[in-house]
């Protein structure tokens, strides 16, 4: 007949076995996630520096090409061309929304709900807002432990 260990000792034995076998534990997964997040932060900082350098070169190229009347140019590894497109810059949102409503031009807007605004309105009512339903989005929050 085998002895049954109390639950807390069983969990400790299972954790020890996982450590001996090199299997991930909750604690090791948390630490691995933290290490990867910190690595990602470093890479994002480097990427941000690179993006700034690219923006500076792009601005210089646009200026020089415009001054020289050039729309396309080639280096030894790549080519660039200047393209233009007309985009909206809303100067009066109230007038713009009034136009959309009057003309039923809803295609001018992108479909996306503002989550904070939805939560604010939904908490005041007994029912969800028409055409919506609450969805519980779960995620892990990772915090650095103070040393």
Total discrete domains: 1
Percent of sequence in beta strands:
under 5%
- SS content category: mainly alpha
Main beta-sheet strand count, sense and barrel state: 2 strands, antiparallel
Strand order of the largest sheet: 1-2
The helix content, as a percent range, equals: 40-55%
Unreliable stretches, pLDDT < 50, 5 or more residues?
none
Question: What's the count of strands?
Answer: 2
Cα(first) to Cα(last) distance is 47 Å
SSE order:
HHEEHH
Specify the number of helices: 4
Shape: flat
**In angstroms, what is the radius of gyration?**
28 Å
What is the arithmetic mean of pLDDT?
Answer: 87
Question: Mind explaining what this structure looks like?
Answer:
A hairpin with a 4-residue loop joins strand 1 and strand 2 (79-81). Helices cover 54% and strands 4% of the residues. It has 147 residues and is mostly helical. It has helices at residues 7-21, 26-68, 93-103, 115-124, and strands at residues 72-74, 79-81. The protein has four helices and two strands; from the N terminus they run H-H-E-E-H-H. The longest helix is centred in the first third of the chain and has 43 residues, at 26-68. It has a two-stranded antiparallel sheet. It has one domain (7-124).
How would you sum up this structure in a few lines?
The chain is mostly helical. Helices cover 54% and strands 4% of the residues. The radius of gyration is 28 Å and the shape is flat.
């Amino acid at each position: 007949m085998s002895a049954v260990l109390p639950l807390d000792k069983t969990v400790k034995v299972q954790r020890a076995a996982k450590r001996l076998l090199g299997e991930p534990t909750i604690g090791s997964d948390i630490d691995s996630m933290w290490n990867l997040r910190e690595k990602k932060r470093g890479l994002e900082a480097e990427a941000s520096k690179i993006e700034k350098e690219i923006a500076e070169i792009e601005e210089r190229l646009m200026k020089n090409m415009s001054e020289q009347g050039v729309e396309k140019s080639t280096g030894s590894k790549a080519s660039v061309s200047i393209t233009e497109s007309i985009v909206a810059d809303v100067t009066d949102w109230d007038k713009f929304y009034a136009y959309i409503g009057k003309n039923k031009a809803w295609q001018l807007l992108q479909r996306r709900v503002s989550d904070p605004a939805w939560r604010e309105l939904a908490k005041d009512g007994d029912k969800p807002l028409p055409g919506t339903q609450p969805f519980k989005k779960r995620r892990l929050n990772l915090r650095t432990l103070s040393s």
